[in-house]
Design brief:
The protein is an alpha/beta fold. Helices cover 46% and strands 15% of the residues. Helix 8 links the parallel strand 5 and strand 6. It binds 4'-deoxy-4'-aminopyridoxal-5'-phosphate. 4'-deoxy-4'-aminopyridoxal-5'-phosphate binds next to helix 5.
Amino acid sequence: MTWNRWLADAAATREEAGLTRRLRPRGPDDAASRSPSVDLAGNDYLGLSGHPDVRRAAADAAMLWGGGAGASRLVTGTLTLHQELEAELADWLGQPAALTFSTGYHANLSVVGALADRTAHVVSDAHIHASLIDAVRLSRAQLTVVPHNDVAAVRAALAARPGVRTLVLAESVYSVLGDEAPLVELADACAKHGALLVVDEAHGVGVHGPGLVHRHGLAGRPDVLVTATLSKSLGSQGGAVLGPQAVLDHLVNTARPFIFDTGLAPAATAAALAAARVARSRPDLAETIRARVTDLARTLGIHAPAGAVLSVPMPSPDAAITAQADLLAEGVRVGCFRPPSVPDGVSRLRVTAGAGVTDEEWERAVKAIDVIVGEAG
Ligand code: PMP
């Protein structure tokens, strides 16, 4: 089969299943004013991407340092600015140390890739993010996938391979389902069996202040590692791993997505640093998210998620796309989860109850969502 034929067949299959994805560029006006639509589609949970301190820090850093870090971290691409951000993140999240990466995806690839190999065992929740799934594949570790949030299954998987170096993977707040991992129970199970717990806090940090690992008193434990993104609540770009210095030293020396990648760009680094400082000084932003997500869930009669994103199950991918378009026509921009981005095949509208829109915009959006979801259901 020729490449052209293969590509055309794949495109036709996607189209038939209603699963074609298209890029929809937005202009800078949208980014600046969030208009004409109310933007409930993004991950800028605290609304910090456009915060004046964050914009200014990014612009100043670009003027001072230039457009890029200029090299990989182990060559000349480690900036004092990176160190400053790493110290701020470690302090905020209550961890001994932090290491930044150019994306959260790289952070996850690095942790699993550097700590697990063919001789290791990885116990992964069934709803884990794609970046962790890819990380396990690259590591070639032995894998046990356990049902979502099933601590008994994790315990059984750990007990089945005594003495094998094991990582347990969880998200503090799951991106699609929006529920919280039983972190304390997972950490206890790991401690009992000598395993390392890796918690992806992509949707926890910021929305829950310093994150749920911190909230549950697990920050700083030598057997609990945290990965995070700088691209959601921190409104920038990049990722981080937080935990014991010995683990981070190991990543610096062995993690291929760290070693063979250019350091985080100065503007992104400075933006994340400024955003972390704003987030720390403005706990009211996280409170706004909690109030909004609870409000919307109550209106729609569904369970409130632990994070900032409400997933609204839809009868089909087409119904989700139609509802999304209808909402856009009403001036409300929401996201859409469709296969293959959902672990259980259920399409959903993805509504971010972020702090970045005004109360008036939020109320208007809730009314429109209520009507259109009601019509679709
Ligand atoms: N982990 C989770 C749970 C995520 O939702 C995401 C982003 N969708 C990532 C990791 C990757 O983060 P980044 O966008 O910084 O690569």
